[in-house]
Design a protein that fits this description.
The complex is a heterodimer of chains A (181) and B (241).
Chain A: H1 5-15, H2 22-28, H3 34-50, E1 55-60, E2 63-68, H4 73-79, H5 90-102, H6 107-114, H7 119-127, E3 131-136, E4 144-148, H8 150-155, H9 167-175
Antiparallel strand pairs in A: 1-2, 3-4
Helix pairs in contact in A: 1-3, 5-6, 5-7
Chain B: H1 2-6, H2 17-27, H3 37-50, H4 56-77, H5 92-118, E1 139-140, H6 143-160, H7 172-186, E2 188-190, H8 191-196, H9 201-216, E3 220-224, E4 231-235
Antiparallel strand pairs in B: 1-3, 2-4, 3-4
Helix pairs in contact in B: 2-5, 3-4, 6-9, 7-9
Classes of the chains: A alpha+beta (181), B alpha+beta (241).
Chain lengths: 181, 241
């Protein structure tokens, strides 16, 4: 049987638990030229995007990952005995996006921007692996420096940090009038 | 009339002083670049007054903002040597913070939508751990292995101390329920640890028989990470009890 490169890549993405980067694919399939791999990958993605299926390949966090299609959430949950995925609390989400836009940043900076102490939220976000500590700032008190993680990108379905809501998108929301709870 | 109603809003709904200020600015249709500090301070303080007891842990930040507002107002009142256009507007620091926070809030709205979409797409990594022992790469243990570990354990305990068999009765049915309840709470049961805590030989024996029954009824499964590794007992997730 002729080995189909597209199918090989599909199999690799299928077994991967973390988003699989194209570099990694090229590394593993070193007998194939990079160009061929890229083409096969493109073809594979096209195949999935063209068909309405129960699963799809997502491009998140710089890699490729299989995920169920959101329309079938209800049935997956039934199978998993109503396993619930909790959304982030409002304060945690605010803290997280403050970090995302101002990183690398410290607790004091985050708290100043939000006008409230964020230490509690940082703990939750660290536990959820949405942020990480990358070092200490060379300033009085040597505060810890935080950054968002790859998992953060995957959590929101973003491919890279550039995919964060842009200035234009934010302005569009603001034009719809400032909304409050 | 309108005022007295507005105070009904609880401070708790606001994420912090900036959130409250933005709410007031929107409500009073104020231009954020030209905030009438005196009136906004008055409004702001009314919200704080409404709270009988200030919880310092949570609300000190609201007080800090009140102090900042009053500070800005007083700076604006003080006579100046230089004219206003040359000196920075004392309100600028507040305006910058408000705008920055406003942007964050808008970004949150977009991110929340993304989160809601993403949360419905299941990935293999997100399958629940507590019910899927398969994820953890265990191997199933046979009844004989379980029995061997149990008898070794009893032998070891015999050496340790002489046990008096008490006349307390244990019902097999109750004990089985006990084990299932334990598994539901702890997600798994460490075999050795579980039996080390049994009070009497009789109780150990009954628990052990219950466990064997549960295994053969395929309600639970005994697994170990590798050969000679400790044995764990998990509920089989496809069973409804």
């Amino acid at each position: 049987m002729k080995k189909n490169l597209k199918n090989i890549i599909e199999a690799l993405i299928f077994v991967s638990i973390e988003p699989l980067t194209s570099d990694k694919i090229k590394n593993i399939l070193d007998e194939f030229p990079d160009k061929e791999i890229e083409n096969a990958l493109k073809e594979l993605l096209h195949h999935y995007s063209g068909n309405q299926r129960g699963i799809n390949i997502q491009k998140v966090s710089g890699g490729y990952l299989f995920a169920t299609t959101k329309e079938y959430d209800e049935y997956v949950k039934r199978f998993l005995k109503d396993e619930k995925k909790q959304k982030l609390s409002r304060e945690a989400l605010e803290t997280l996006s403050t970090i995302a836009y101002h990183q690398p940043t410290t607790l004091a900076e985050i708290s100043a921007i939000r006008g409230v102490d964020a230490s509690h939220c940082l703990k939750t976000l660290l536990e959820k692996k949405l942020i990480k500590i990358v070092g200490r700032k060379k300033s009085p008190g040597k505060p810890l420096i935080y950054r968002t993680t790859k998992n953060f990108l995957a959590y929101f379905g973003l491919n890279s940090i550039e995919d964060l809501p842009s200035k234009e998108e934010i302005e569009k929301i603001l034009e719809d009038k400032y909304e409050d709870s | 009339m309108e005022n007295s109603q507005s105070y009904q809003i609880n401070l708790e709904v606001f994420q912090g002083p900036l959130d409250l200020l933005l709410f007031l600015i929107k409500k009073k249709e104020i231009d954020i670049h030209n905030i009438p500090i005196a009136s906004i301070t008055r409004e702001y303080l009314k919200y704080l007054d409404h709270k009988k007891n200030i919880n310092l842990e949570r609300e000190s930040e609201f007080l800090l903002m009140a102090a900042l507002l009053i500070h800005i107002k007083s700076r604006m009142l003080l006579p100046r040597e230089i004219s206003l256009d040359e000196e920075e507007d004392p309100r600028q620091i507040l305006v910058d913070r408000l705008l920055d926070y406003k942007n964050i809030k808008a970004a949150c709205k977009i991110l929340r939508e993304k989160e809601e979409k993403q949360i419905k797409k299941w990935k293999r990594k997100e399958l629940p751990k507590s019910v899927s022992f398969q994820e953890l790469d265990f191997m199933e243990v046979s009844l004989f292995d379980v029995a061997e570990v149990f008898f070794n354990l009893i032998k070891r305990q015999e050496k340790d101390q002489i046990k008096v068999i008490k006349g307390r009765d244990f019902s097999v049915k109750e004990k089985k329920q006990d084990i299932i309840r334990y598994l539901k709470e702890h997600s798994f049961l460490d075999f050795i640890e579980y039996f080390s805590h049994q009070e009497t030989l009789e109780e150990s024996l009954i628990s052990f028989f219950c466990l064997l029954e549960l295994i053969s009824e395929r309600i639970v499964i005994a697994v170990q990470k590798s050969l000679f590794h400790r044995i764990e007992v998990w509920l089989r997730k496809e069973v409804n009890i």
